[in-house]
Design goal:
281 residues; alpha/beta; 10 helices; binds nicotinamide-adenine-dinucleotide
Length: 281
């Protein structure tokens, strides 16, 4: 089975669109997402454009604030504090990575944890760890929705996550644990990675290396979620998984493009909506 993230995300976006339409009738204002982009990183520009387009599609008010790469840390923190105070703003997202002179941790800590639409604020990271309600990071949240969509019960299943980033690997491991899976986090220093992966009923791959994972890493009938976004030798988008090599061995797999990527953007909209409701309780 090829898990069609594009189609599933469109279905969810249409649901959000209807909800936003109801909101516009019931409340005096629309949910609002502010995205701050510092610098001219090409991938970031594309991600921000996608976020803006998706917000417009569902009717969420979106504002993109662009600064050149010399924008100071002090000015950025001041801007965030101002947005924290603005009652018309529900979600604040600072696109990562930031230029080297800006302290990423300081920036994430400055965003009001109640407007932290990415779920990267330390308070929200702690809440996720404790299983409390919080904005859940978009990529991991999208993966859990996809597993839900294919009616996959994680109870007692072996999950192997490759990659230990704060934005993907660690939070998705925590979410799988909450669903009663047995979770292993593998990374660049893991010994005999193929052997570790072969025990996975669900293999989540977030490395950033084109087509690194081939059928030697896969247990027959596994579910494979491929987070990677890379370019192959022909400059075509591809994941961390060698799709053609593994597709006949798996039960289900997400393609790249059209798998996890669209879900990430859609979960950003969902998080914005959830924060809006929280602010209007
Ligand atoms: P990262 O780039 O911060 O870190 C990569 C991780 O992979 C590290 O934890 C490292 O230990 C591990 N790793 C590196 N080489 C390895 C190896 N040879 N064997 C085993 N593990 C290895 O991770 P990230 O920010 O989670 O990004 C990973 C990939 O996912 C990138 O391609 C990124 O573009 C993509 N991504 C996609 C989405 C999406 O929406 N689809 C969202 C976030 C990230």
């Amino acid at each position: 089975m090829i898990i069609n993230g594009k189609e599933i995300s469109l279905k969810i976006k249409d649901k959000i669109k209807k909800e936003v339409d109801q909101i516009s009738k019931k409340y005096n204002r629309l949910p609002k997402l502010v995205v701050i982009l510092v610098g001219d990183d090409q991938a970031s520009q594309t991600y921000v454009r996608n976020k803006e387009r998706a917000s417009q599609y569902v009717g969420i008010e979106s504002q993109v604030i662009r600064h050149d790469s010399s924008f100071s840390e002090e000015a950025l923190l001041a801007e965030i504090r101002q947005l924290n105070q603005d009652d018309t703003v529900d979600g604040i997202l600072v696109q990562l990575p930031l230029p080297a002179h800006i302290d990423e941790d300081k920036v994430l800590e400055t965003i009001d944890s109640n407007k932290d639409v990415d779920g990267f604020h330390p308070d929200n990271v702690a809440k996720l760890f404790l299983g409390q309600q919080c904005p859940v990071p978009c990529t991991p949240k999208g993966m859990m929705v996809l597993l839900d969509e294919i009616n996959y019960d994680l109870t007692g299943k072996e999950v192997v996550v490759i990659g230990r980033s704060h934005i993907v690997g660690k939070p998705v491991a925590m979410l799988c644990l909450q669903k009663n899976a047995t979770v292993t986090i593998a990374h660049s220093k893991t010994k005999d990675l193929p052997k570790v992966c072969q025990r996975a009923d669900i293999l989540i791959v977030a490395i950033g290396k084109a087509k690194m994972i081939n059928s030697d890493y896969i247990k027959e009938g596994a579910v494979v979620l491929d987070v990677g976004i890379n370019r192959d030798e022909n400059n075509r988008l591809c994941g961390d998984v060698d799709f053609d090599d593994v597709k006949d061995k798996v039960y289900a797999i997400t393609p790249v493009p059209g798998g996890i990527g669209p879900m990430t953007v859609t979960m950003l909209l969902k998080n914005t909506l959830e924060l809006f409701y929280q602010h209007n309780q």
